[in-house]
Every structure is written in structure tokens, then in C-alpha cells.
Design brief:
Blueprint (H helix, E strand, L loop, with lengths): L21 H7 L10 E4 L5 H12 L3 E6 L2 H8 L8 E5 L5 H14 L5 E4 L17 H24 L6 E6 L22 H23 L4 E7 L13 H8 L2 H6 L3 H4 L1 H8 L10 E3 L2 E2 L21 H15 L2
Parallel strand pairs: 1-2, 1-4, 2-3, 4-5, 5-6, 6-7
Antiparallel strand pairs: 7-8
Family: Belongs to the short-chain dehydrogenases/reductases (SDR) family.
Protein name: Short-chain dehydrogenase
Pfam family, one: adh_short
Length: 328
């Protein structure tokens, strides 16, 4: 599905080039102030593209519930946006299922409906560790915590859907999903930790979760998309080694496709608001368009989804196992 943004992505020239920003998406959709009364819930809003996603949806008039582990850090990062009477901050530590449940309970106590859920927060290649519930850090944080959050919020997402405006779930994946499947026999990498492989597996899980949400709840009016935001200048890569960063620094193509955070948030906002996507879901998006299959001959970081992205059987298995893992 080519969009009006396709041409802008054909010859990228680095951060700040002509590729769209999240704010531009709202303006192009004619949504300035038009989503007043609608509610969005966004995880990971103390840095990076979470902040820019929030700014764009605030411009559209939405009431926002923004989560962070540190609310003081989030207030500083959000600056004047945190002072808006349409912005509410919620403490959420995705390292803990208890924290997810507490956060969801508080949100539900204050709202009868939810229109947009954006599972934005994530960690990348941290040192080997376990969440408070005993899962490999990236799988537990990036996938399982968001999986639990969706399931807890699903009833009010359903309550928020209308015939003219369905509820939407946006789950951030990554180009990294192409490089690892989910190993159901060892999701914790207990037989040998590989940070990049664990990250890739968690991003495959994110993609499959969005697809499965669409299959299970699309007919009821909750539509889901997975999003590859692009290579974005954020602190997500803080745990990468100097040698790994050196490989990235030496890649001229990768340098050209890097985005600023406001550009990196554009596809998330497009997924959450674009009229062209109304009533649809279950696809992997990047560069503000529905992605095609990756051609490996075009380069390691070229656009496209991996061959296992739309594996229905594996996605269903992940859903069933994840229900057990999070205690649902």
C-alpha cells in the first residue's frame, strides 16, 4: 500500500530530511483538535518517540494517559505538555506484572472507554537479566508486559469503538524481528544469552501479538497494527557495545535512514489515526505505509517484513502460551 509519504522515503538523507514528522501526520489528516473527547494510552513517555507521539495526539485534541517508570523524569521530558489538563501521568514499570495490573486498574477506575492504545516502551540489548516475574528482560518487558496490559484494557477498548471510529492498538516492533523467531523451548535464553537475538525475538513477539489482536478482536471493532518506527536517534541503543555501535556507524545506508524522534513517531501516529487504515489491521507498517516482504538482497536494513511475520500458527501459539505466562 503506497501512500503520499512513499516518495519522501525513497531517497532518505538523514535526520531532519523531508520524511514526515508525527505532527505532520496529524496536520495532513486534518485532525488538529478533531479528536477531542477521545482517549489514548501510551507507554514509554519519558524519552524518545513516546514523547513525540504524545505531542502529536495532544495536538489532535485527545486526552492522554502517559506512562513511565519515573514520573519525575517524564514530567521533565514532557515539559509544558505535562501541565496540560488533558495529560495524565501513570506510573508503570514493565519489569513487573504487578505494576502493569496496578496501572491498568487505576486507568480503568478513571475511564469508561479507551480509543487508542500505543505499546511504545521497550528495552534493547541490556545485560542479561530477569524481570520481577522471572522472564528474560526483553521478552518480559517488550512483549509479556504489553500483552498483559492489552488484555486488561481490552474491555474498555471494546467499549470505545464506534461504527465510524474503531479502537486501535499500535504495537511497536522493529526491523530486528527479521533476525530471530520466538524459541518457545527457551524464551529466557537460559542456554546462552545473546542480547541481539533476544531483542529480535521480543520484536517478533510484538508483531505476532498485533496480528493476533486483529484476528481475535478485529471483527468486534478493535484493530491492531505493528509498527517499525525506523532507525531513530534515541537512547534505545544505550546498552550496545562500542564494537556494535561501530558497525552501525560505518554503515552509510543506515546513516541515511536514521530519523529524529519526531520523524520516528510518524508511523505510530499514522497507524493510530490515518483514515486510510480505518476498519483495518493486522499488518506491519513502516515509513507510513504497509510494508512489503523484505528482499534480503537489497541490504540488511532495507525495508520489509521477515518471512515469519505472518505465521498464523506461531502467532496463535504465542498468544496461548503468553496467557499462561502472565497468569490469565
Amino acid at each position: 500500500m503506497a501512500t503520499q509519504y512513499a516518495a519522501a522515503h525513497e531517497h532518505p538523507s538523514g535526520p531532519g530530511d523531508i520524511r514526515p514528522t508525527a505532527k505532520q501526520i496529524i496536520q495532513d489528516e486534518g485532525l488538529d483538535g478533531k479528536l477531542a473527547g477521545k482517549v489514548a494510552f501510551i507507554t514509554g513517555c519519558s524519552s524518545g518517540i513516546g514523547i513525540e507521539t504524545a505531542k502529536a495526539l495532544h495536538l489532535a485534541g485527545m486526552t492522554l494517559y502517559l506512562t513511565a517508570r519515573s514520573l519525575s523524569k517524564a514530567r521533565i521530558a514532557l515539559a509544558e505538555l505535562a501541565d496540560s489538563d488533558r495529560v495524565h501521568l501513570l506510573e508503570l514499570d514493565l519489569n513487573s506484572f504487578e505494576s502493569v495490573r496496578t496501572c491498568a486498574t487505576k486507568f480503568i477506575s478513571e475511564n469508561k472507554t479507551l480509543n487508542i492504545l500505543i505499546c511504545n516502551a521497550g528495552v534493547m540489548t541490556p545485560p542479561e537479566g530477569r524481570t520481577m516475574d522471572g522472564f528474560e528482560t526483553q521478552f518480559g518487558t517488550n512483549h509479556l508486559a504489553h500483552f498483559l496490559l492489552f488484555n486488561l484494557l481490552q474491555p474498555i477498548l471494546l467499549a470505545g469503538t464506534t461504527p465510524s471510529l474503531a479502537s486501535r492498538v499500535v504495537v511497536l516492533s522493529s526491523v530486528a524481528h527479521r533476525f530471530a523467531n520466538v524459541n518457545f523451548d527457551d524464551v529466557n535464553f537460559s542456554r546462552g544469552y545473546d542480547g541481539l537475538a533476544a531483542y529480535a525475538a521480543s520484536k517478533t513477539a510484538n508483531l505476532w501479538t498485533a496480528n493476533e489482536i486483529e484476528r481475535r478482536y478485529g471483527p468486534q471493532g478493535i484493530h491492531a497494527w505493528s509498527v517499525q518506527p525506523g532507525a531513530v536517534l534515541t537512547n534505545l541503543m544505550q546498552h550496545m557495545s562500542d564494537s556494535e555501535k561501530g558497525v552501525l556507524d560505518g554503515d552509510t545506508y543506515l546513516a541515511s535512514i536514521f530519523k529524529n524522534p519526531d520523524q520516528g513517531a510518524a508511523t505510530s501516529v499514522w497507524a493510530a489515526t490515518a483514515k486510510a487504515l480505518e476498519g483495518k489491521g493486522g499488518k506491519y507498517l513502516e515509513d507510513c505505509q504497509i510494508a512489503k516482504e523484505w528482499d534480503s538482497s537489497s541490504g540488511l536494513y532495507a525495508p520489509g517484513y521477515g518471512v515469519h511475520a505472518y505465521d498464523i500458527e506461531q502467532a496463535e501459539k504465542l498468544w496461548i502460551e503468553s496467557l499462561k505466562w502472565v497468569g490469565l
